[in-house]
Request: fold
Amino acid sequence: MTSETLSANDAQRWQRRADLIKKRISHVPAYLVLGGWSLVTLFMFVWVILASLKTNKELYTDVWALPTKLHFENYTKALFTVNLGGFFINSLVVVLPAVLMILVLSAPASYILSRKKFRGSNLIMMIFVAGIGIPVPLLFIPLFVILTALKINNTLFGLGVLYVALALPFTVFMLTGFFGSLPPELEEAATIDGASDFQVFFSVMLPLATPGLITATIFNFINIWNEYQLALVFLNDPKLSTLSLGLYSLTNAMQYTGDWTGLMAGVVIVMVPTIILYIILSERMISGITMGAVKS
Amino acid sequence: METRKRLIVLFLLPAGLVYLAFFLIPAVWALYYSLFDWSGFSENMVFVGLGNFNQLLHDPTFMMSLENTLVILVVGGVIIFALAFVLTVLVNSGIKGKKLFRAMIFLPNVVATIALTTLWAFIYNPRFGVLNSLFARIGWKAGAAFTFTSIDHIFWAMLVALIFMQVGFYLILLMAGMDKIPEEYYEAARLEGASQWQMFISISVPLLWDVIAVGMVLYSIFALKVFEFPYAFNQIWPPPQLYTVGIYLFIEGFGKRVPIYRLGYATAIGVVLQLIVLVIVLVLRRGMRREVFQY
Reply:
């Protein structure tokens, strides 16, 4: 090896290293902006948790100080005295059956609409999806009349029915996107093997669609768990409050009690289930939410 | 073929019936109610034709709520999409931790609105809030004395919080669209010496057009019917400065401290809201229609 080729190699190596450093430097603004944004978000949630463990006096004196002692009594007070514990159970009683029912109704419908096209199926699809564009407040009064006539106004059951109906458009939109993306070969093979349409759906398509169904279910769970608008309109009995509505009432009462730390404990209690789900399943959720909107 | 028909009916009917009974029929029925002066007892229904709509035009509180809603739509929308685009480019610029950043920025979307508004009330609180106490600490007197939640500022304070919450959703939408664009396009452009910005304008934007269009429609619908976030933002009864069309509808229909039950009038507000949604979605779809890019 001559010295000339050696120096050429050296030059190449230096060039590569310089490129790498340049690339690293060009990434600095991205890290600053994204890191800053992420930190602010993280900081907000950590702060709420810290505040929920302080006494009100500590909070009023210095909002930046760490709690001197962990005051878990804020949580027992929120859960039992203010009854967020009872509201938590109300929420579970509404949300879990509603989420299951949405799946039972929308999975078969989405399967038909995306894979068994017939005359008028596109029109039906359009009518379903049009619901996304109907603003919920428009429905307040007619729904109030309907629920009252059915004697299910001011009941958790009635509220659950509304949650199911109002989730259908977006869920069908998501699931048709998902069913549409499945490969047709397995379906065809099963049909050739003599499986009936029902069998194809239950033993071939449903198992294949499981990831999509799970995503839709988490998405609906989080939305319904978090919502308080319909609960505010259709539940008058404070005992029936869902957790979000209960927390809303608590923020109202706070104007008189001044109990910020108790309120912060309530905020943490509302957030815990959805954040846990998110930590476990964030990738699946993120990919799923876009599955109807971004079609390949 | 008979079984095929049975399958279609059996699979579509349950969802269709629930959707009709508790969504579509009430929506159409609202048109009928909007023509009456009605306080909730059917014997008192008085037909007023378009009277409610005429009255809305001269209702300053309605106009204020409409203006607020349109500001959320236009100002909020422009800022949210601009931020989402910038963040998408940054996240996709080849850095490490792409998924972590995306997950952090999306996080507020999985948290209950009422939890977020409480959190922001804590941040903005004039007495011991995070921002005011921060300004006091660094010795910025004017900042420390600024009241974010005063009547004059509360709407903008709310909008900032709303934007912060929403950006993550459009970030993941745009990123999902980006993932569908073949990497070779960028490689080819890079070989030609294109800059990040050039690649963004001449590759990403055109190929993302469909996704952008869907995102804009979704945001418009969200913004026009927004209720929960501004309604809870002041913690107690929202001042009219925070009213959106959806909130004003609720207040007129059910929700004053002394309920007024102007059900016909409230429904007319809903009908106007529906018309605005229709117009804006149609305009967007018209405006965003372009030749389809194949890739």
In short: Chain B touches chain A through 97 residues (CB under 8 Å).
